[in-house]
Amino acid sequence: MKLKTFPKGTHPPELKDLTAKKPLESIPPPEKVFIPLLQHFGSPAESLVSKGDEVCLGQKIGECKTLFSASVHSSVSGKVLAVDNHVHPGGSLVNTITIANDGQDRISPEIKEKGAHVLEMDIGPDEIRHIVKEAGIVGLGGAAFPTAVKLTPPKDKTIDTIIINGCECEPMLTADSRLMLEYPEDILYGAEIIRLATGAERIIVGIEDNKIEAFKTLKNYVKNASTEIALLKTKYPQGAEKNLIYALLKREVPRGGLPFDVGIVVQNVGTSKAIGDAVKDGIPLHQRAITVSGSGIKDPKNVMVRIGTPFKNVIEFCGGLKDNVDTLIMGGPMMGISQWSLDVPVIKGTSGILAWTSSPYQEYDCIRCSRCVDHCPMGLVPTQLMKCAKYENLTEAENWGILDCVECGCCQYSCPAKIPLVHWIRFGKNKTISLRRKKSA
Q1: Nearest-CA neighbor of 174 among 266, 296, 297, 303?
Q2: Is 218 strand, coil or helix?
Q3: In terms of Cα–Cα distance, which of 150, 291, 170, 176 is closest to 238?
């Protein structure tokens, strides 16, 4: 049987062997957690606590005040030490709540009340969306888009299919694979909740064929005809929403459009589990699964870690760093963000922590080989976008489709001249979006 996939893309080394067979381990919570009020797409949450306040595990400590935002919760019980700026994996200082862990994990009364009963599948869409919003759930694949918004399609958009993204196409990352192997029932329960919230008719779980055990495991747990477990050809970036939709259903999301426009909602397997936990047990998003890997990590692992745990604590749990490590990445090697400090905390969008010793780097002139064009899954011309961004010709950049770039890195990976194409395109996108905001203000 021919496996489903999408056009173009690339095949970087998978490098998953270091952690693929390692079960998730829970990291003991640290003495202090640093919980940023911005760890999602959109506006920061507003603090609900002050220095000196006592908080419980799972207590809401930051509230979303706009549509595109997400509440944040304490991942330990203890005392608030500060509400001020702290280093953030995104590369800037962000307003952050620092909490001293009392080691008791006193559960918030809100969770006890909600967890006293299991909500049945007959709850309505509005109640589901309210629970998901209150739980602070965002997309755990890395984009961190507020999930309650995704579960609220416009009234003129009919959703017929839910896609659960189990591709985990980024090299080195295996935490989602472990979630599928260890929590298949929870993932499928969450998927059914998503289906009910959106009124969709069916669910498709997409898994690449390098995770055949996860495919078999989920298939064994399917209990109804409305859910399909689909096997996909291993290729990067299969897990990007638009590529995954095309691979499974041959539907093309229009330029500037969203999956809503073709009747689809896509959620990551970790997000699906988090939704199930929130609806069934009242548990807000306060921890997540991540992969800690790379040639610079002494004992690579898949771990379950509390939000707000400093990177240095996570790395120490994995044996520490080897000598001469000079590259630290949050996320995967293709789309991850370089880090400059081990003091940054794990946030909702942290899918991995990777470390290695980098090779000498030298950029050369473009030889117009068109490899970047050949591999771009969005059908763009990355070198043209790079030039427009570099010389701040933003109108031309927008005409060439710079906002359609998903920053997957296929162009940069395939470029023999080692041009930092994604760097320039990301710069151009940010400039273009800022200009749009100024015009609309």
Answers
A1: 303
A2: helix
A3: 170
Pairing of strands 287-293, 202-208: unpaired
pLDDT digits 0-9 by tens, 319-340: 999 999 999 999 999 999 999 9
- In this predicted structure, the answer to whether residue 433 has a pLDDT above a threshold of 90 is no
3-state secondary structure of 266: strand
* pLDDT score of 17: 97
Taking residues 140-169, report their average pLDDT: 94
| CA 23 – CA 21 distance, rounded (Å) | 6
Tell me which residue of 171, 170, 177, 267 sits closest to 213, measured CA to CA.
177
Residue 438, pLDDT score = 80
Tokens coding 44: 């920061």
d(C-alpha 112, C-alpha 339), whole Å: 37
The pLDDT value recorded for residue 165 is: 98
C-alpha distances (whole Å) from 335 to each of 113, 317, 325, 408, 440 are 40, 25, 20, 6, 30
Q: Report strand pairing: 161-165 vs 202-208.
A: parallel
pLDDT for res 116? 40
Tokens 């969709």 correspond to 200
Coil, helix or strand at residue 58: coil
pLDDT of residue 206: 98
Is the per-residue pLDDT at 118 higher than 60?
Answer: no
pLDDT in tens, 78-99: 999 999 999 999 989 999 999 9
Over the range 159-174, which residues count as b (16 or more CB within 10 Å of their CB) and which as e? bebbbbbbbbbbbbbb
3-state secondary structure of 81: strand
Secondary structure (3-state) at 135 = coil
**CA 320 to CA 323: how far, in whole Å?**
10
How far is it, in rounded angstroms, from Cα 5 to Cα 7? 7
**Mean pLDDT of all residues in 139-158:** 92
194: how many CB neighbours lie within 10 A of its CB?
27
Q: How far is CA 146 from CA 38, 109, 133, in A?
A: 12, 24, 8
- Phi/psi for 78 (5° steps) reads 160, -155
The whole-angstrom separation of Cα 400 and Cα 287 is 40
Q: At 169, is the secondary structure helix, strand, or coil? A: coil
Partners of 338 in beta bridges: 329
